[in-house]
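Q: Predict the assembly, please.
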Amino acid sequence: MHRELRSHIISLLAAGIRLDGRKLAEYREPIEVENNIVKTAEGSARVKIGDTEVIVGIKLEVGEPYPDTPDEGTIIVGAELLPLSNPDFELGPPGIQAIELARVVDRGIRESKALDFKKLCIEKGEKIWMVIIDICPINDAGNLFDAASLAALAALKNTRYPSFDGEKVDYKVKTDKKLALEKMPIAVTVIKIGDKFIVDPDTEEEKAIDSRLTVSSIEDGTLCALQKGGDFPLTMEDIDKMLDIGIEKAKELRKYL
Amino acid sequence: MTYKQRIDGRGFDEARPIEAKVGVIKRADGSAMFKIGNTWAYAAVYGPRNLHPKFLQDPQKGILRCNYNMMPFSSSGERVRPGGSRRSKEISMVTEKALLPVLDLEEYPNSVVDVFIELPQTEAGSRCAGICAASMALADAGLNMKDLVCAVSVGRVADKLLVDLDYSEESYPNAPVADIPIAMMPNSGKITLLQMDGEVKKEELMKLLEMGKKVLTDIYEIQKNALKEKYHEVEE
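A: Predicted assembly structure:
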């Protein structure tokens, strides 16, 4: 479908350059993380990577624990691909794209143990905190995966518990108690086009990708979640290189938190 | 029962602080942001573009389609469940009716102009903020327009008539309250949105419309300045 675009991109990449003049492993500028931008949320952040802009808001609700983990709270990640943010998005219940985005962000946070779920327990078997993370793109100019997971982490970092008297949550009163973040999982999506690897694809590049690998890693380089996408397979060598790029670039992104 | 002074210290005829900007969403054909107090709206316009499903097409003219949506974390209480509610559907419909009179869509048969309104944060007056943002976004999209549309709520708390009610006033305890969102085409002075809940006398309502008109004139200036600012930047 985008064969000409793809071959144009490939010929540029052979010369070490991207459509917008960037180098292969270079994020767009500026990258901005703004904290606490939504007063009605318990935690929030807006992340801009180039023209891509995502808002993440966190609500805390009291609920019942799952029967198999009676002393653990939980997280719920939702993503809505708002038709406001991209001419190709349509109204309606989340499609597979939105579901994948939410699940990739969810896994990065859940599997890295960024939140100690035991600390979200209020009363064993009865009451737990549910941390609800909602991802809302404002302008989708590419790479929602990385922008959303960075915004989710920033928002978790500034989340404060609302007042809770054992019966009811009073959302009007925020306490000083913060969510304890134990780890900083950062997602970096590495794209393969032809035999080259790039990060932070823009809208045009996203149309032309062969495959992608979203690599979530924590501070010491330990991997905590992966997601391969795209229609083409990857060799072992590809994966080796993509993981290196993912871990390396995560260090850069982590500085914005 | 008397409401002596507004809880946040404003005058009774005074709106909350307003901030407005256009061109905030690059992928859209037109876009705007409108903040009034703690209520914050984005609007994006896409189109005129092909309309699907086909049976909705009008061979005589283009249609306007609006969607109002609160982000899940935008309410000061519990999380708002995603997906439309009856309330958001009704607001989408009245928003459409509030904006339609300023548009001329006869040039665009079988097409649609989509307006998406998203609210990251709300504290009363969200449909009015959405309409203000949407009318700026339509202008930013370069559509033919007869006028802008400006919107604000007016109302009554106990014995006082006032403009731009905030949440504490909308839910003022033990006193009669009326909340009346209005939208106006500022050049003709015609009203394109009028809703009300609460209780108010006819004479009071007419007085409130006059009070609203004054504030809407100020909002019109803010909207115009925001639009000019974008094109000023382009000139530079």
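The first strand of chain A starts at residue 31 and ends at 35. The mean pLDDT of chain A is 96.
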